[in-house]
Every structure is written in structure tokens, then in C-alpha cells.
Amino acid sequence: MIQQPNRSEAGNALVAVMVSTIAISGLLYGSLTTTAVDMRSTVRSVDEVRTTSLAQAGVEQTIALMRNAAQKLNTMDPIQGIRNLFTAGPYAALTAAPVTISGRTYGECTATATAVVNQADRVVVTIDSTGYYPVAPANAPEGSERPRQKSVRVTVEFNLERSRVFESSYFINNWGWFYGTNIFCNGNARSNGAFDCANYGPTVTGQPTYDDLTWNGGDATLSGYRDDNGDGLQNGLDGGMFAGWSIAGSNNVKGTGGTALPASNKHQFTEQNEMPNLTNLEPYESRAIAQGSTISVGGSVLVNGVYGDSPGERQHLYLVGTAANPIVINGPVVVRGSVVLAGVIKGQGAIYSGGNVYVPNNLQYADAPATSRPANNTQAATETWLEANRNKDFVAIMARENVVLGDHTNGTWRSYVSGWLAHAMNKSREDAGEDGIPNTRKGRDGILNTADDDVLEDDGQWTVQRYTADDLARGLIPAGKSVNDPIPGTGEDIDGDGAYDNTLTLANLDLPAALNTTNWGGTITGSVTLSSIASGAMTRLDGAFYTNHAFAWLTTPSSAIHMNGAMVSRNESVIYGGPGLHMNYDARLLGGSNTVLGDLLPKTLAPVIVRDWTMLPNDPHAACLAGGSTAP
């Protein structure tokens, strides 16, 4: 996001503990010297630490395997991939599997998982894992000392949650940019890559986040306050700027009251937030049909659940509303093609587009919240605001491809936006390496040919996981996919469509078909040109927007610009002018999966919850290892 420029301006923790423990154990062994005391008890103690760490490694590997299974059905239902592992009973995840780190094997482990709760949206699993040193009994040389072993039982829970990308006013699944001193972000600003403010002085007020929202009649209660600045207080001063990499120019960023944003509100090298996968819109279509969702204008219903699925319907939808005849949305709808959306919109719902979403002119609520933000960031003020605005207009706009705003047919628009799409620090080509973020090949130390290099980045190879025969046997290949097909969303498949994508260009943003009644349905009459309904001086954008491609916009009005909701994108090419850009986070997106929009927003697999951890007195796998071992 850049202020109107001139031409001279430049456009897993437990495993780590295990590694440390094993290393320490090795040092302890190496430091033993001949003494007059019997050292056997010391050796036994070290062995217990070592074997417990190996058992824990088995737990971590099993969790990783289950998350991998979820990934393989991510386009349909992530948690179903985990459920499918237990169709024939317990899941034998690991059998005498070597625990190897940096080419060195430290021991072996065996792990079995059993589903104790197996529901559509919740799976609770008990993992029994045993660590063996130096090898499992069946692999021990004949006549050798019996291997040491330790077993643990860990109960973990998998759930779906509303994707956390919607907890920020501005979220970028790449490098974030605040190149403007009059950018005012009233909510969290977050990127999965670096965040760059250069020498500009934007303002980031921040927004405390919560795990849950409950209603008792008309009374709202937020719970699960996240103390991300670690001060032990729930005073509304959390939130701020977050980056999966470094934050450049952070000393110039201002916070509440125009003073410098405190260091405790600037978070570098944070955990990435996973983008939802909208490759397959079938689950959303099923939900739209089941809920009887509609879009109407002037009393005429234009969409019943899904647009483009019935004979005679066009694939693309054109909607322009006025104050007298607003676009009225009720629940989630799916448009199989692209959408043109502008004017006045009313109701609560979500529009899922299988193509691009074009917003050529202002888009605003007919019945908007009385104020764009709560009086302050305290929980009490936020709950009061939620109670007052719970039933006000609220819309989410989700594009499988791009979100294009303003007049993209205008030469100036195309010049500025194309420059940022092609910018070296805004790469969109799917050769971004293991972390999915460009320009991180050198790693955090900034030095090539060191251990933290992302060697897959810019290697000219599209590196992804592929479905296997074992996946087929376990029911982990969705309909339409086959053995050896790329698994959507793995490796360098950043947008999760299972196909390689090169650098985004203007061609990706252009209309898929001429604007006429032959190609488009909705409120369109005859033939129109985009420029006839578009504005190069947009000032109002209401709604929560999502795309895992580009959010592209040039607007240069003479008055301030207000974006009320959220902007979630992979790449961002926003160029603005005028007195300022105000991004106001809609607090109705707070509360985890129980936000005001609830099930209308995409969900991802929630972080794993550890419910119980217990040492076992005996090896539960002794019988299965009696006849030998196999690789998992």
C-alpha cells in the first residue's frame, strides 16, 4: 500500500526441545570420567531423558502426519482427512521409525493413534508413543544389551476455526507495505513475510483479539483475551503490527494518540497465519443451498444459493445498487464466475466468487454501524459497540482469484498497478521456497550458504507434495484427483489451486468477458463499459474482502478514503492519494468461530490442543514389535 507516488519514488517447538535434550544427554555422556562412585544411576537417568525425548518425538511426528492428512483434503474439509485415518480402527503412524536430525540418528520410536472422539468438526486422539535407545528391540543386534525404552500417552484435539487472517484490518500473505505517512490502520496490520514502512510514518492503533464471542439475548461477551504483548494485562493495549519476517522502518510507526508505536506492539518473526483454500467452492455451494441464501435487488431475487448452476443462468454476475434499490444479501451465496459489485448493499451475508471480484466504484452499507469503531479498545467498549451494531449490514466478499477496484481500464491505473505487481519485493511467482515467502532465500542471518537458507526459493522448480498410492488406500485423495497429482496448498502451491502460477500481470485482472447481457446476469441492461460506471476517486469501501491473489486499486480522491471491514490478500498493489487512507477494522469479526458472521467465513484447522500427557509403565507396542519392524 503506497501513498500517491511521484516517478522518483520506489514503488515445531517440542522437537526443538528434544534436539536440545539429546544434545545435552550426549554432552553428559561425554563428560563422564572415572571416579570412585558407581555411575550407573547417572547413566540410567540420562537414558530416561533420552528415551522420553524420543517418545515425544514420536508424538510430534504423529501430529505432523495427521496435519498432513488434513492438508490432503484441504480443498474440501481439512478435518475429514484426519477422520479418514481411523476408518479401520487405530492409526499405526510409526513403527520403529528412526529419529534422525541433520543426518544423525538418535534412536527409534513407535507410535499408534486412537480416535476417542471422531466428529464432523472435532477429533480427539490418544497417541501412544515409545522411544527406544539405541534401537527398537526387534532391531537390536543379537546378544546386545536390551535397548532402553520409555512410553508416553498424549491426548490431543483437532478442531476447525474461523481463519485467523480475519483478525487484522490489513493482512498480506507476502510482504506488507505501508508507504504513506497518512495511512491510519485502526486494527491490526499483519504480513506473513516482512513488513516494510521505509521512512514513512503510518499510524497503527491495533486491536486486541479474543478466542470467543457469546450472546445472552442482546448482551455480548468476549472471552479468551490474547495478551500478545505479554504484560499480563487485559487493558485493550494489545494488537499492533505483526510480521512473519522483519519489520523495516518500525521506529517511524505511530500508535494511539500519534505517539510512537510501543515496541511491545511490534512483533517480528511471528508464526504465519494460514490462508484459507478456496480452490473448491462445492462446500460453500452446499451451505448456500441448504440455508436458502439469496441476493435480490428491487424485490427481484437474482441469486438463489448458487449463481451459474442452472440452465439459462450466466456464469458472471453484475450488481449495482442504489439507495432506493440496494443490493440485498441474505446468507452466503456462490457465483461460479466473476462478480461486478458497486453502490449500496444491505443485509448480512457473504459472496464467494469463482473468478475475480470487481468493485469499480464506492461500495457502502445501506444501514452501516453508527461509528466505524468502538469508542476505545477495552473489552467493555468493544462489547457495547457489538451490541449496538450486531444487526447492522455486514458483508464478506471472497474471491478465488483477484479483487480489482476502480477503473482498471484506465492507462494511469494500469501503469501504477502493473509496476507494483512486477516489483521485486512483491513476487507472486510460485517459486518462493519452503516458507512460501519471496526474498527469504538467505534466511534470517542474511548470508547465503548457511544452515537457515531457503534453498527451494528461485530454484526454477515447482516443489509440491503429490498424492500417493497410500493416500488412495487411506481415502485421502478427493474426487477429481489421482495418484501423483499435486496436493493443493503444499510446498510452493501458495494459492492452493494445485497448479503452478507464474507472476501476476494485468491480464489476470482484466474482465473475463465484455459487459453485456450475453455474458453477465444481474442488474445489467444492454452493454456497458467499465469506465462508464467506474471512479478513479473512490472514497468508501465497506465489507471484509479476501483474495489469495492480488488486491489491486488506484484511487486519488480529494477527500479521505475509508475502508471499513478488513482486507485479506496475498499480493497488494494499492496506490492512493488525497488526505489519507483510513482502514477501520470491523470488530464484528472478533470472537473466533463465533463472530457475527459465524459460519459465513472460511475455516482452517485450528492449532492442536494438548489435553493430557502421561508416562506409561510399560511399552504398549511390545507385541507389535516382536516380529520385526517396518518403515512407516
3D structure, described in words:
By secondary structure, the protein is an alpha/beta fold. Helix content is 16%, strand content 30%. It has 8 helices and 34 strands. It has a 23-stranded mixed sheet that branches. The longest helix is centred in the first third of the chain and has 33 residues, at 40-72. The chain is globular and about 85 Å long. Mean pLDDT is 90; it is low at 5-37 and 627-632.
Intertermini distance: 47 Å
Q: What is the number of helices?
A: 8
Helix content: 10-25%
Approximate strand percentage? 25-35%
Low-confidence stretches: 5-37, 627-632
Short summary of the structure?
The protein is an alpha/beta fold and 632 residues long.
Topology of this protein?
Blueprint lengths: L1 E2 L9 H19 L8 H33 L5 H7 L6 E11 L2 E15 L3 E12 L14 E15 L7 E3 L3 E2 L5 E4 L2 E3 L3 E2 L6 E2 L7 E5 L2 E5 L17 E3 L3 E2 L17 E2 L14 H10 L2 E4 L2 E5 L1 E2 L8 E6 L5 E9 L3 E15 L3 E3 L3 E3 L13 H11 L4 E6 L3 E3 L5 H11 L47 H5 L46 E3 L7 H4 L6 E8 L2 E6 L5 E9 L1 E6 L4 E5 L17 E3 L3 E8 L16
Parallel strand pairs: 1-31, 6-9, 6-30, 7-10, 8-11, 8-32, 9-14, 10-15, 14-16, 19-21, 20-22, 20-27, 21-22, 22-23, 22-24, 22-25, 23-26, 25-28, 26-29, 28-30, 29-31, 30-32
Antiparallel strand pairs: 2-3, 3-4, 4-5, 5-33, 5-34, 12-13, 17-18, 17-21
Helix pairs in contact: 1-2, 2-3
Features:
30% strand, 632 residues, 16% helix, 23-stranded mixed sheet, single chain, 6-stranded antiparallel sheet
